[in-house]
Amino acid sequence: MKRSHLGEFEEIVLIWVGIQHEAAYGLSITNAIQEEMNRSVTLSSVHTALYRLEEKGYVKSELGGASTKRGGRRKRIFIITNAGREALESSREMRMRLWSKIAKNHFPKWEL
Amino acid sequence: MGTLNQPSKAPAELVPPKWAERFFRWYCNEDLQEELLGDFYEQFCDRWETAGPQKAKLGYWLNVITFINKYTLRRKRGSFTHIITPDMFRNYFKLGLRNILKNKLSSFINVFGLALAIGCCLVVYRFIIQFYYPDSFHGKLDNIFVAERLVNEDGRRQLWGAIPEPLGPAIQGSSPQVVNFCRLKNYNANFKKGEQIFTEWITFADSSFCDLFDFPVKWGNENNFFARNAIVLSQDASEKYFGNDNPVGQEVHLRFNIRGEIKERMYVVQGVMEDIPDDSSFRFNILLPFSAQKGLYVENFNDWTRYSNTLFLELTSPNQVEQVQSAASPFLAQYNEANSGWPTEKLHLEPLSGMFRHSYMVNDSPFISAHIAALFMLLIIGGALLTLACFNYMNIAVASATKRLREIGVRKVMGGNRAQLVIQFLTENLVLCVFSVLLGFLLARMVFLPWFNNMSDIAMDLSFQKHPSLWIFLVGLIIITTIGAAGYPAFYLASFRPIAVLKNKIRFSSKNRFRKVLLGTQFLLSFLSIFAAIMFLNVSKEVQNRTWGYNQKGIIDIRLNYSEDYETLKNEIQQISGVERITGARTNAGVWSEKVVAEISDQEYSVMGLSVGYDYLETMEIDLINGRLFDRQKPNDLKSTIIINEQFQKRLGWEDPIDKKITIDSQSYLVIGKIKNFHHEPFDNEVKPMVIRLAKPQNFRHLIVRVPEDEVVSTAQAISGIWKRHYPDSPYDHRYQDDAFNGYFNAFEQVNQVFKATAFLTIIISSIGLFGLAMLILSRKMKELSIRKVLGASLIDISYNINKEFLSTIIIASVIGIPLGYFMLDTLISLIYPEVQLGFLPFLLTFIFLIVMTLISVSRHIYVAMVSDPSRYLKDE
User: Fold this and answer.
1) Segments making up each domain of chain B, as ranges
2) pLDDT category, B115, cuts 50, 70, 90?
């Protein structure tokens, strides 16, 4: 499977797929990002990110149950794959490694 | 699935915008619709509660619009694109070729029919190029304009091409927008080659000619073309007098006949032109400098009563026409003052590039032209033939669908979808259409275009080098015929349900309305084209047989050039046996008559005038109604008597015209006779009021000899001998009077030819189409016919059975075709020839023709059905 770069927004979406374990679908992720991260996103950008992640093999999807709340329509539930988890971890490791390289005094004083 | 897509228990007001949802369902991939609509709806409900209905609806719309992306769109088509691979196309092409080879007869019918139609379309297209892009070889084409005079002829506005000679220089001097001008003046001169004398058409041109135009030069240096004593020959003239040698530097002697006075001039050949390009809208033969006219018949170039045939103006830019036109008005006033005729109101500038489709409106225009009606006629014909051929294809393709049902069924069961099948059939047809276009191109090049050129006197070729747009047209034709012919069959074949196909449950019946409409349209088109051909044949026969108002047969008209003595010739010609009468004339009916202004009790009338010798009316056999003809015994006749025609009497409203007075050019004439109307102009002009006066023999330009009809040629030859003995330096120019309207008849003949050819092609295309269709219908009906035969059906029963579908369609087509044909041809013919009435006979003839055509096309199949062994077709069950 093709391993490719994980974009910043994709990473956030992928993390949320992980957080909302087996209950993540387009709207739930959109709402979560909007409410908990105070970041304005549209449904379509989240979906686009999800499809892209699916293409990259970081998530897989299946159609879940229907609910009257959705007018009887089923949801597509996204589940993070092992590859996705690895991608997230390697991304985090990379970040941590870089963090450790920043000397503390390089930050502006007041932030410490 | 459908129920899932419906909101089930939603409160009544919580309905998302209907159009947004509809739009989304339209563009979005079906796989994604459910989940996305679900998300939309959920969000919509949330927002309804938090932000209100307005924002919820807006948000829904925004979602629908922002979701247009490659995932929602692409996945839908993705299922499709990955099947359309080069391999697949290769397979389709192979299948297409195999199908063509397998069904040789119907492939031949399709290819041949389409090729005929395509060949015609190519000719039409070539004609349109000629029509719309003539003279394209001139670099300055866009800036070159042709000047014409708009003349007010008693309220009728007419364009005239002849322009007063001084106008060109005057207008260049006064308006800065005119860069250059070039006048052309046509004249005749005699060339002597050995013993023979030829009259050549020469053109005096201003030296700006080479600057304005880019006619290709074969030999010589353009800078010397208009030097003193220079002459430039066309390739034809050069070959005629010098063979294949380069004549530059050679001396040429030309003889001009200026009102009886012979002037000989020597010129030096300075150049030879290449053949004038086909698309040139004007032609010339031999060029002389405009200034060379001086001393011949012009003394003063500032004479406003003298004309040049054409005036070209080169403007600084094409949008300065208005300024130049208005700058010309003071000069036109000067011209009007110098001339007594109808006043010129305005100078009209027409771009040279438009002359081909404009000049038929201009009097005495030397430009080659075509009437816009001809273009429409050809367009309609081309379109109709192509339609016919496409319909043939459709009919045969639909009728032969049975042969491919299994294939379609299997393809569908194996997962082929409709779009794939459509593409498959279109690709297969593409192969056929490419063949047709190639064959059509060959036909156009080798048969149709030579025929059309020969008939229309326009030289056209199909060269890709000169007309690169032909490529585009050919590719366009391939696409149009592919889609036009195979579009319907492809969708029709692809629409079958696989189960029905494989279970053999598809029923073909004559209920297929569409096919009947196709067949009906074919019959209708055939009906119209055959009808038009018969009608035009009829009309042209009627026109040929119309009486001219005198006996035009058996008259030889010999042109005199002032220098010959009428009496000498007359005395000698009288000795030839068979010569019945000899007379002379200054102006001759049907050839040239002049316009004169007749004054009657202070009222002016513009009428036609003939000046003739004694015996002219007797020689032409023009009938006298009352009064008398000119009489040699009455000396006053020569100066002061006049004969008028019926038309003039009618116009004047005179009861009895005899002894009335008419004044022409301040000379008073007494009317001595009234003659029957005769046609001095072709039949499309009505007979005009006319006066006939006597002319003196020294003014005669025509010597007219009446001989028995079958002796015209031998007598003309005998006269030629006399002429050469007396006037070896003067060309012998004789015509036969009954050729006078040849130009008019030729135009008729051209239309006639076009319609005949169209009818011929229509019949061929329709017949082969019918043949193929009947064959396919019959192959389906064989079982039925075999049972009928076993039960004792006769030949008549069987032929009725086969033909009934065709016959009912023919009747319907004729019922539509009769009023339509009547209307179309009535309009067309009343334009060309107002007096012809359409009879009923052509309709009947056309109808019978169609039925005979159908019966002949089908007869072979009836024969096959008759002689076949019924058991062969009944056995397999």
Assistant:
1) 18-81, 155-341, 372-543+744-874, 555-740
2) very high
